[in-house]
Amino acid sequence: MKIASFNINGIKARLPRLKEWLEETRPTVACLQEIKTMDEGFPADEFEAIGYKAIWHGQKSFNGVAILADGVEPVETKRGLPGDPDDEQARYLEAEVNGVRVASIYLPNGNPQPGPKFDYKLRWMERLRAHAASLWAQEIPTALVGDYNVIPNDRDVWAVKAMEDDALMQPESRDAYKRMLGDGWTDALATLNPRGGVWTYWDYQAGAWQRDHGFRIDHLLLSPELADRMVAAGVDKAHRGREKASDHAPVWVEIRD
After folding, report:
1. 247 labelled as ligand-binding?
2. 147 included as an active-site residue
3. 149 marked as part of a ligand binding site
4. What pLDDT does 246 receive?
5. Domain 2-255 has CATH 3.40.50.300
6. Are 100 and 143 in contact (CB under 8 A)?
7. Which of 24, 94, 179, 248 has CA atoms 20 to 30 A from the CA of 31?
8. Does the annotation list 7 as a binding residue?
9. CA end-to-end span of the chain, whole Å?
């Protein structure tokens, strides 16, 4: 089973690239972030035509997450992250696929910091940890994947100095992420690339892609039931270099049946 995550940065603008990636790499499950469309604008028929069933949680112009499954219908288990009934941002969607619980996550960016957006980011991370603990307690094989908007360690960024004031690598953001790892979740990419130097995002500005000035913010967190079955994990970096690409590259993990 191959579980992938892709911040597509606008599903309508990137649809040809997205379908290209799906057909070339054929993940069992593809979790998307930043679809940037209302529910009624989601192009489900386009995915159906290439064999993928979809569920989605949209929002006009911003955010939005989706889960695609190859040949099977994802069974939705949670829409929106619990813990704040007033939070209307479309950032969390969870489903059962082939006996595995998969969540597509688009964690708040948090800039500018300090300020209300950073405070919201930290509260959201606390809610995510609490919900993850409830899944853990049920011993459900779970993958929490997506754009976490956190650079966990200095080895996960091309230049620490360039990002030191950004919300993505503030001590509070990093600590919140590490608390989840401390609860027993396995960071698949970090586990298989302990020296770092693996990027998942390159800004459109300042020739970041051409100069390989990137960082790692797209993560695949696995419960023990899945971590024990992990075979491989990686980044489909070449897809970032294609015409009209997202500023993120897809990330993936392979799990033994």
Report:
1. yes
2. yes
3. yes
4. 98
5. no
6. yes
7. 179
8. yes
9. 7
What does the DSSP 8-state code read for residue 37? S
E strand or H helix at 112: none
pLDDT value of residue 28: 98
b/e per residue 182-220 (b: at least 16 CB within 10 A): eeebbbbbbeebeeeebbbbbeeeeebbeeebbbbbbbb
Residues of the chain with pLDDT under 50: none
DSSP state of 191: H
Catalytic residue, candidates 52, 106, 177, 201: 106
Q: State yes or no: is 52 an active-site residue.
A: no
Check residue 241 and give its pLDDT.
97
Q: How many residues does the chain have?
A: 257
Where are the strands (E) in 64-121, listed by range?
65-70, 75-79, 92-97, 100-106
Catalytic-labelled residue, pool 57, 131, 147, 219: 147
Which of 55, 12, 20, 8 lies closest to 37, judged by CA?
A: 12
Active-site annotation holds for 213: no
CA quadruple 118, 120, 123, 125: dihedral positive or negative? negative
In the prediction, which pLDDT does 19 show? Answer: 98
Q: Do the Cβ atoms of 66 and 42 come closer than 8 Å?
A: yes
Q: How many CB atoms lie within 10 A of CB 32?
A: 29
Q: What is the pTM of this model?
A: 0.97
H-type helices in 94-247, by residue range? 116-137, 160-163, 171-182, 188-192, 224-227
Q: Report pLDDT for 9.
A: 98
Helix (H) or strand (E) holding 83: none
Radius of gyration of the chain, Cα coordinates, nearest whole angstrom: 17
